[in-house]
Every structure is written in structure tokens, then in C-alpha cells.
């Protein structure tokens, strides 16, 4: 297999750390790995395969000669650098929402729509961390019995916001346990021992952008523009692991046992569903794992063609870094990686 | 107003503590207050109105002569003692699920169906702590535009389970923050920094009893047996305050602004809904208050006749103790309180 020169923009973030772990675990075939971050991280080194690698500042020059660049930084960085990488002849695999709805950019979960990679033009987006597990769990069922409507409520971990949110949860939890009060910094209200129905900004419709993303991204990935989706996205005081309560209406009646069998045979999905022994997915046990876990599959009592179910995913791994790395692996397998121009790209 | 002899079975529990606070706050008109609990609590005293009151053991004799007995204990205690209170000529207002679906027992949220109290035969049930806020928020809308289907996901505080669960959340949170591992006692899995889609026992349908209760109790209270309801009930690491994400299908289109106006004018409901300034209900701010708080009212993007919304309630107060005390207040106003026989009741 061709050994690639790869880069990681956002190497010092919460998702960046997972990228490094997963590249190591999967022995991703690269010739060189360039760790990039903002100027704040100058002078830092990160451990990879028992080696200390320096963190470099992200500049247009820093991505020169890289075949694949993973980007997990701010949306502004994604906007600029994905375009620069593509212009230089490499492929950017971007974790932000900057490019996801661009019709020229494939939005890919390899288990669901790997074929869309064939249309890539140098930028590929990986979906929102709540969209990935939903399409993983629903696409295999949709192929058998087309889905008409999805109502979903989420329970989202603070690591989706980033390292500072993880620290804020810990420090707030400590001060509550000590009987002290808190001033929130990252979220508008306290998150420790609380839940907040606000993820990303509010839109005129009353939905948040996170809720809108779940809807629009799902339709794009599943090639199902007619799907009707309503989401309520809620932040919960969990470090890692997003959970979702799903109510899914199919075109025809769907037996819960059949859904169980289909999902149990779907790549990247594990069914954990034995209520008698309290077996169902929950974030504490899903953190650090690669699969989308599905449980509590049952006939929806409120609609003859609907199922209710519950899923959990590690939002940093399959919800973000792992999915991006799997996209890169597919690009290699599909022989879609080009040799970039050796010189630095220039911004426009 | 007639001054009553009242009793509180379960005085030392989490809901019991709220009962005492609320009786004091509302200056409930009683002549005597008997605090009752299990044998474990013998010798304890509780503060009420700056006075120390002794806790007595619950026995058939202990309820003799009481006009109203609030019961917030185990289901077994409710089964026995509600019947004994009724037999002795008093009225039991029971917080458990023991009697709620009994056709002879009114299940009441005063703001919604106070008229049902007229049919009481000595036992009145107060609904589950997730049902109370849902019917408070939906009944005013249902009267204008009949509701056909409700899909609801909950975010339930540990205090709903009781004092031991509150302590377990704190002790688990402490040990996680100290990097130590936990053995769960109250819940099947760790609850600190986790969410668990299991509240009450599982039924053959795949739903939990909690989910079933939300459905069946709502239909009974709203006198709407044709309502279709599907719930997913989830325990979250919050001390006090249950939240619910609701998707509600009406018979006809329902303007979110109209729903806002109707709810803002409904007794016991407060609308907190201004996304621009992150104004919406959340449990940390709802704990210790009496209202059902509703926010995030929006047109459901997945159905033309549906609204999505979010609500939060203090599960110990309006979700339990306050609602029971309001029932007692209504009984007095409606002149439904009888004088019990002065001698002790005998069990059958």
C-alpha cells in the first residue's frame, strides 16, 4: 500500500488526540505525519508511537506536499485550509460543518455512502458527531423499508464542544460537590448536574444549527431528500459519548426482531439489547470504542409503521476522528489519492 | 377554613422533605400533622415551622382520626395504607403508581382535571413526576386543538429514585473526579457523567413501566383514551428537575406563537422562550420552584400539524409533593373532606 504524507490540523484538540490514538491503533500507512495547530501551541510536542513529534503552526506552507490533511479545528480554519489543500492537489478530510452541505463536497460515512467518494474534488466532509451514528443505525433499515420520518432527541457529551468544555464540566462538578457556586464560561448556563437544550446557535425556525445539521446531513448522506426529520439536541453532563432516542417511521410495518437482525449484521453497528439484564448502550461504556451501539429496539406504541430505539456512539471516535480516518483508508483502497504539487499553495 | 388532622407517610424521604417545606410555605390549614415512616426512622425528629416533630412508625393505628393522609413511600405501603385510610373514612392522597390506573381512583392534576375529585372514594392518586408536567403543558393546547400523537424523550433527575440515588450520584461523581472507579448500587450502571435509558422495570413490549405510565396516565388525566403516545425515559446525572423533549401532533396546524400565548396564560405554567438570549428552561434553575416551565416552542419540521417543545419541572415539588398538597387544597375548597371514624382502622 502506498505510504502517504499526511497532516493533522487541530492536533492539540480533543478530537486531535483521538486522531493520534486511532492512527496508531490502526497502523495507518503513512510516510510522514505533520502535526499542525494554532500559534498558541508553538513549542509543544505530542507523543505518537512512543516518539515525540513537534507541533507546527498551521500556515499555507505547512500543508505543502501532503496527500491527505485531516482538519479538526475551527470552522474558519476549515474554510481556508480545506480549499488550500485541494488547490495544492491534496485531499482535505474536514471535520467541521464548513463544507458539509456544499454540493461539490461528498459528505461521507464509509459504511453508508463510500461510493460518494468517487466524486471528490479535493475536499471531503465528515458529518456531525450526531449524524454519523444516526445514519449508521438507520441506513441499513432504510434500504429494506424506506424511512419516511425521524423524530430524535439527543444526549450529547461536552467533549463535542472541546477540551475547555471538558475542563469546565469537571471544575463545575467539583465546586457543586463542595457546595460552591459557579460562573459558566463555555456554555450559557451551568452544565454540571444540569442539561441544556442548546447545541450550536439558534436559527429563525427555532431549531438550533445542530438540529438542522442532523436533518440536512442525514438527507444528503442517505440520498433521501424527501426524509422528514425533527431533532431536539441537548447537552448533558457526560464527558464522552453521544446518545440518541429515536422514533422512526417506515413506509411499511417493521418488526423489531427483524430490525435487530439487520443491524446486528451491519458493519460498524453492535446491537446491545437485552432489557432483562439491563443490557443497552450507555455512554460510560461506549467511550473509547469504535462501534455505534443500538439497543431498546421496540415497536413504537404510537404508530403502526414505527420503531423506537436508542443508540450511543463515542462522539470523538466514530463521531469524528475514526470516521475521517476510515474515509482516508477508503480513498487509498479506491486509489483516489493523488500526488500533490511539491510547492506551497497560495491562498486566494 | 376547616383545620384538618393530616398525616404524611414517608416523611423522611426525598419527597417527604419537600412535603414539609411546601406545607410550611403554603401555610396549609391543619390542626395536627403526624409524621410517619418505617421502623428505621424511629427516634428521629424533623423540623417543621421551627418546631421539632417526632417521626412515628406507620401502623394501622397511626392513621386513625386523620382526615387526609399523604403517602409517598413504597408501592407496597401505598397499597396497604391508602386502603386503610379510605376504610377509616379519611382520604389518602397517594404518590405511588399503586392506585393510579384503578378506575375507582381519580388521578388528578388540579389545573387539568380537578372535577375528577368529585368522584373520589377515599383514595386519590397523584401522577408520575413525568406525567404531571406533560399534561400541564399539553392539556391547555389539547382543549383548543385536539392532540393526536405525542413522542416524548425524558431527562430525569436522580431524586426521583430517592435519597440514596442522590447520594450515589454525589459519591460516584467524587470518585470519578478523583480518578477512581465505581461500583453502582442504586442503578444497574454508573449514573455520574452517564445517562441510562432505564427508568423503572422493563415490560414485554420493550417499553419500561415509566414509559407506559406516561402514556396511560396522560390518557386517563386528559380523558383522551384515543391519544397515541410513545416515550423514552432516561435517567441523567441531575439532582432535581425532570426535562422532556416533546413532539406533539395536533388535529390541525398549530401556530407556535399561539401555543406560546395559550401556555403563558395557563395556571401553573411559565413560558421561558427567547433563544436569542439562551432563555429556555433547564433543571438547575427550575429546582425549588413550583411551575412547569416550557420553552423552545417551534413548528415541527417533520410534520405540518406538529409542534416541538421542551419542558422542565421540579420533580419533587409539582412532580410530586406540591401536586398532592394542591389536591388536598382543592378537596377542602370543594368541601369533599369527610370526618373519619375516631377509632383505628383494621386491615383486611
Task: Give a brief description.
The structure is a homodimer of 348-residue chains. Chain A has 348 residues and is of the alpha/beta class.
Mean pLDDT of chain A: 95
Q: Class of the largest domain in chain A, according to the CATH hierarchy? A: Alpha Beta
Q: Give the SSE order of chain A as H and E letters.
A: EHEEEEHEHEHEHHEEHEHEEH
Largest interface here, residues on each chain? A-B, 58 and 57 residues
- Overall number of structural domains of chain A: 2
Q: Gap between N and C termini of chain A, in Å?
A: 34 Å
Oligomer: homodimer
Main sheet of chain A? 7 strands, mixed
Radius of gyration of chain A: 20 Å
Percentage beta strand of chain A: 15-25%
Name the CATH superfamily assignment of the largest domain in chain A: Dihydrodipicolinate Reductase, domain 2
Widest sheet of chain A: strand order? 3-4-2-1-5-6-7
Low-confidence runs of at least 5 consecutive residues of chain A: none
Q: Give the number of DSSP strands of chain A.
A: 13
CATH topology description of the largest domain in chain A: Dihydrodipicolinate Reductase, domain 2
Structure notes:
With 348 residues, the first copy, chain A, is an alpha/beta fold. Chain A folds into 2 domains: 4-127 and 321-333, Rossmann fold, CATH 3.40.50.720; 131-315, Dihydrodipicolinate Reductase, domain 2, CATH 3.30.360. Helix content of chain A is 29%, strand content 22%. Chain A has 9 helices and 13 strands. Chain A has helices spanning 14-25, 75-87, 110-113, 131-144, 163-177, 209-221, 256-264, 283-286, 317-333; strands at residues 4-9, 30-37, 45-48, 51-57, 68-71, 91-94, 123-125, 147-155, 228-232, 242-250, 269-271, 292-299, 306-313. In chain A, the strands form 2 sheets. In chain A, strands 3-4-2-1-5-6-7 form a 7-stranded mixed beta sheet, sandwiched between helices. In chain A, helix 1 packs across helix 9 (317-333) and helix 4 (131-144) packs parallel to helix 6. The model of chain A has no long low-confidence stretch (mean pLDDT 95). At the A-B interface, strand 8, helix 5, strand 9, strand 10 and helix 8 of A face strand 8, helix 5, strand 9, strand 10 and helix 8 of B.
